[in-house]
Design a protein that fits this description.
By secondary structure, the protein is an all-alpha fold. It has one domain. About 75% of the residues lie in helices and about 0% in strands. The protein is built from four helices and no strands. α1 runs antiparallel to α2, α2 packs antiparallel against α3 and α3 packs antiparallel against α4. It is elongated and about 65 Å long. Keywords: Membrane, Transmembrane, Transmembrane helix.
Length: about 130
């Protein structure tokens, strides 16, 4: 007797995990930015978090490329993730240069954009 099985698409895909990680690390950066004002550990955590956030942004670019090429997904998310990596690069440069008047608003913008990207990959319309 033959049993018929159907493949069910996984809800946890590499691009979804990557953009969720990116969004989470940006939120962590907002928390540690607030900690800079009140604790001495805030600077260390914010510095470590910036490296993790930058790595998460690179991972998101990789995830969109891998989803596009062999998986046949749209190439549009590659543009979004690459643009976000450019913003992350500017953000890191502004942080190193100690320019909070641009660093903080750009961080807020990046969090909003990352939340939009996360919402898009989690919605059913994104497929």
């Amino acid at each position: 007797m033959a049993t018929q099985t159907m493949a069910v698409p996984s809800r946890l895909t590499f691009p979804r995990i990557a953009v969720a990680l990116q969004t989470g690390t940006i939120f962590f950066q907002a928390v540690t930015a607030g900690m800079l004002l009140s604790t001495s550990q805030g600077a260390v955590l914010h510095d470590i978090g910036s490296r993790v956030m930058y790595g998460a942004s690179m991972l998101y670019v990789l995830a969109t490329i891998l989803a596009w090429r062999p998986g046949g997904a749209s190439p549009r998310p590659i543009l979004y993730s690459t643009g976000f990596l450019v913003l992350a690069s500017v953000q890191v440069a502004l942080g190193i240069a100690h320019v909070p008047s641009l660093h903080v608003p750009l961080g807020v913008l990046m969090f909003g954009l990352s939340m939009l990207a996360l919402g898009q990959v989690l919605s059913d319309r994104a497929k």
